[in-house]
Amino acid sequence: xxxxxxxxxxxxxxxxxxxxxxxxxxxxxxxxxxxxxxxxxxxxxxxxxxxxxxxxxxxxxxxxxxxxxxxxxxxxxxxxxxxxxxxxxxxxxxxxxxxxxxxxxxxxxxxxxxxxxxxxxxxxxxxxxxxxxxxxxxxxxxxxxxxxxxxxxxxxxxxxxxxxxxxxxxxxxxxxxxxxxxxxxxxxxxxxxxxxxxxxxxxxxxxxxxxxxxxxxxxxxxxxxxxxxxxxxxxxxxxxxxxxxxxxxxxxxxxxxxxxxxxxxxxxxxxxxxxxxxxxxxxxxxxxxxxxxxxxxxxxxxxxxxxxxxxxxxxxxxxxxxxxxxxxxxxxxxxxxxxxxxxxxxxxxxxxxxxxxxxxxxxxxxxxxxxxxxxxxxxxxxxxxxxxxxxxxxxxxxxxxxxxxxxxxxxxxxxxxxxxxxxxxxx
Amino acid sequence: xxxxxxxxxxxxxxxxxxxxxxxxxxxxxxxxxxxxxxxxxxxxxxxxxxxxxxxxxxxxxxxxxxxxxxxxxxxxxxxxxxxxxxxxxxxxxxxxxxxxxxxxxxxxxxxxxxxxxxxxxxxxxxxxxxxxxxxxxxxxxxxxxxxxxxxxxxxxxxxxxx
Lengths: 427, 162
Ligand code: FES
Ligand SMILES: [Fe+2]
Prior knowledge:
The complex is a heterodimer. Chain A is an alpha+beta fold. Chain A is built from 13 helices and 22 strands.
């Protein structure tokens, strides 16, 4: 069959024709009109991750973030219910919260002083006399999104008519459960994050989470900085791992099958890089079983789980993406620690995170450079396609979807098929 | 005010700054004590020292081993984000001696750094606190904490040593 390499001209583009089984059109990275539609048909129309429960642990704890481009506040009320509220005063639209996180009793608008409860209800309006009978406070709460959570992950949506979160996640749920085992017996906690921006489209980052192919190339300098055993472990591209399409745009890339379940193989030898930590934990008086469990959990899971559209459970951290514009994306790499766990283990996790992530890490800057180059290159050959056909011939049907080898572009194909479904309203 | 000490300290720190801008990394590595820590925190809390920062997420928290690895990475040619390397010029000023216990001096300074790479000129302004150990052979860096004024913002890659 002859492959049609010519894309339709911009004016007559049918969105459905921009994503094919083995490729996506370059305009998906560059067309501002497509970006606007994505904000509406994807970010305002499906479940979007907003927080991990540890970020709003106690009543009054809040975090400000975004759903798509819309600023929201995630807050726990006194009845322990988590609310996701539009960060927009109902009077004349000022934001009611500018802090990234904190604890409060209420949100008071700085402009004219309207105050809102933790559930978003409008509590007080200064000098109400002038309103006479024309302002019913019950009608003007902060606008509230629908909120559901699974495995400590809090998601919100503008839509009342979409499926429950658990159905949306589907087979991804069991991978989320596996991922949370890196608490090593403790609840996991988000203990800070690296934030950075790159001048490129959000889907470039989305693709990367299940891109095993780039690892040995882009991360050569990182691989040169780790011990031999770790380097061998990370040499997974020709290994037995796999990428699986889990439906609804979600996918998992298993790089190190041995580290899928962190509660198994507890008798395996302690890796060289954690020998010192194990010794420290023994000295602190932890029994051998506990030492093994913590040390096995400390390096994170052997897989990346990509949840469409904005969150990934990536080895040892959460990757959050926020689309800013068609050619700008903000990324947060949130570090995970063991809540109440040994300080030595948590310090090890923090140092591992700093080693790879962040603007001064040995990994992220090189990823970021590659993504910038994609956006720049995508300005050329605007009629060309982004190829997504790697690993296609070897793909097999699985219980949960389809799977390809560990460097297959199966995860990207999954994401783009979901993109097409949401953008066109067609299956 | 001990202007003699201030002169000695600033001469040492200006030399360190010059080494970094000119990529004299082996000389730079040699000026540290064996237990020295190079830290670039996210947390804007100025009261936190190396021990507090050990339990928090930072941009960098480098002991001797990580410093050597950082230098190796920057000079390896293996990292696409440092090819080409950034060109930097930094100036240090506003030195103030905060403490001097005989064995070590704590000094704080203002650092303005401009970076150019590919098509972009960037600014990084930081408050830097140093602990300088007195040795028979002059000062050695015992700790250097670089507090970027915009540490809590979303940053771009920093492919050099602040
Ligand atoms: S805009 Fe909030 S009180 Fe007026
Ligand atoms: Fe990467």
